[in-house]
């Protein structure tokens, strides 16, 4: 059972105060009063925060070191309580209305910078700093936006083990329009990463220092909105690494669809995506051992919300999620799949509690390089609570 508490500290702070009238501003020497300054909007600077806590009751298989030093696979039942996320951030819009900045820090576990960037322009824009690569809408949306308690195993395999999407230092330029089909195009270049270390179930990477131009990840995304449905396509020529201080480029692309349709007293939300690309991992028993096989993956998340059509309004939202991944399209019986059912309830965009059951399963030829030989199979019951302001 999991409890996730999210506090989003977002008091909106005025960065300028009303100045006195011209007459009151004149000094006793009789000089003319200085002209009034432009008064900034109270929303020009705001602080925001979020705190998530999670409780998980799980049953899984894991590989551990036995007393004699050998590896043993065994079943384990566990109840884990964790601080899932604790975010604090600030947004600033300068008096130059086309210039803005954002900073967001993650304080849970090891403190680190999540977002830190400047953005200039309105219709045509440029963005520089650290931020998310233009990729699938499922990855671009905040965990607060998604009804899920967590993005799932396929997400972990793609972002943590295949180096797809995520946040990197980079530069992006693009075009966006609010009217009509709401077209948006983003092109970006991002600093690549190389393997740092691998521990059971986890993989760490580090930025490539003093890198040549060949050490960058290039990414692009375009989207259109038609009849309330946003259609997107994206591509990454990404840097991936399976050896410390070494890297290579791998092609990746995807299509996605997003729906957010509001009715009088309810709303329908959905995310669907499909992606494919070159993989870093090969099954040890594969004949020929193609060093860079192709993977394919698909995800679907659908939720229907009763209530919650206005900020802070009570709501209940049942949802379902399914994802599948083929790590190597030339190998049989190597699929990994996951499914989740849950319900969220609370006060829309302010506080929520999510109860979610999930299960994952991998077939016998699933590459052992993923998860550092850890078994991906598990069943979990999650309880998450969150709030933000």
Proportion of helical residues: under 10%
Total number of helices: 3
The top-level CATH class of one domain is Mainly Beta
Round the mean pLDDT to the nearest integer and report it.
Answer: 87
Structure commentary:
The strands form two sheets. Strands 1-2-3-4-5-6-7-10-11-12-13-14-15-16-17-18 form a 16-stranded antiparallel β-barrel. The model is unreliable at 1-40 (pLDDT under 50). The chain has a domain at 120-388: Beta Barrel (Porin), CATH 2.40.160.10. It is mainly beta. It contains three helices and 18 strands.
Brief rundown of the structure:
By secondary structure, the chain is mostly beta strands.
Please name the defining characteristics of this protein.
3 helices; disordered N terminus; 389 residues; mainly beta; globular; 4% helix
Topology:
Layout: H1 22-25, E1 45-65, E2 71-93, E3 99-106, E4 112-121, E5 124-132, H2 137-140, H3 153-161, E6 167-176, E7 184-191, E8 193-199, E9 202-207, E10 216-226, E11 229-240, E12 248-262, E13 266-278, E14 294-307, E15 314-326, E16 336-347, E17 351-362, E18 378-388
Antiparallel strand pairs: 1-2, 1-18, 2-3, 3-4, 4-5, 5-6, 6-7, 7-10, 8-9, 10-11, 11-12, 12-13, 13-14, 14-15, 15-16, 16-17, 17-18
């Amino acid at each position: 059972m999991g409890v996730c508490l999210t506090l989003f500290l977002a008091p909106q702070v005025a960065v300028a105060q009303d100045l006195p009238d011209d007459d009151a501003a004149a000094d006793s020497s009789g000089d003319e009063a200085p002209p009034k300054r432009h008064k900034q909007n109270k929303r020009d600077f705001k602080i925001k925060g979020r705190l998530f806590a999670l409780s998980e009751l799980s049953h899984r298989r894991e590989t551990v070191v036995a007393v004699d030093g050998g590896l043993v696979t065994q079943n384990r039942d566990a109840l884990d309580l964790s601080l899932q996320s604790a975010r604090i951030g600030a947004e600033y819009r300068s008096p130059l209305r086309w210039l803005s900045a954002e900073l967001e820090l993650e304080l849970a576990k090891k403190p680190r910078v999540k977002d830190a960037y400047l953005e200039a322009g309105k219709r045509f824009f440029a963005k520089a700093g650290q931020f998310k690569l233009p990729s699938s809408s499922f990855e671009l949306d905040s965990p607060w936006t998604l009804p899920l308690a967590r993005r799932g195993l396929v997400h972990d395999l793609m972002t943590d083990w295949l180096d797809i999407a995520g946040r990197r230092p980079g530069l992006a330029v693009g075009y966006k329009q609010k009217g009509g089909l709401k077209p948006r195009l983003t092109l970006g270049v991002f600093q690549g990463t190389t393997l740092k270390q691998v521990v059971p179930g986890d993989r760490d990477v580090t930025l490539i220092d003093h890198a040549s131009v060949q050490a960058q990840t290039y990414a692009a995304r375009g989207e259109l909105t038609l009849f309330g449905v946003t259609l997107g396509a994206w591509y990454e020529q990404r840097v991936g690494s399976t050896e410390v201080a070494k890297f290579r480029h791998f092609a990746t692309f995807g299509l996605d669809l997003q729906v957010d349709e509001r009715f009088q007293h309810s709303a329908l939300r959905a995310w669907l995506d499909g992606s494919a690309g070159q993989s870093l991992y090969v099954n040890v028993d594969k004949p020929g051992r193609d060093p860079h096989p192709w993977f394919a993956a698909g995800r679907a998340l659908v939720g229907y919300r009763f209530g919650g059509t206005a900020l802070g309004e009570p709501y209940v939202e049942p949802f379902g999620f399914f994802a599948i991944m083929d790590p190597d399209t030339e190998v049989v019986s190597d699929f990994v799949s996951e499914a989740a059912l849950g319900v969220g309830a609370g006060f829309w965009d302010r506080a929520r509690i999510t109860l979610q059951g999930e299960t994952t399963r991998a077939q016998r030829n699933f590459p052992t390089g993923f998860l550092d030989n850890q078994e991906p199979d598990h069943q979990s019951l999650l309880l998450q609570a969150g709030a933000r302001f």
